[in-house]
Amino acid sequence: MTSAIQTINLSAWYGNKQALTSVSMSLEENKITAIIGPSGCGKSTFIRCLNRMNDLIDGFKTEGEILIYSKDVRYIDPVELRKSVGMVFQKPNPFPKSIYENIAFGPR
Question: What is the count of structural domains for the chain?
Answer without folding.
Answer: 1
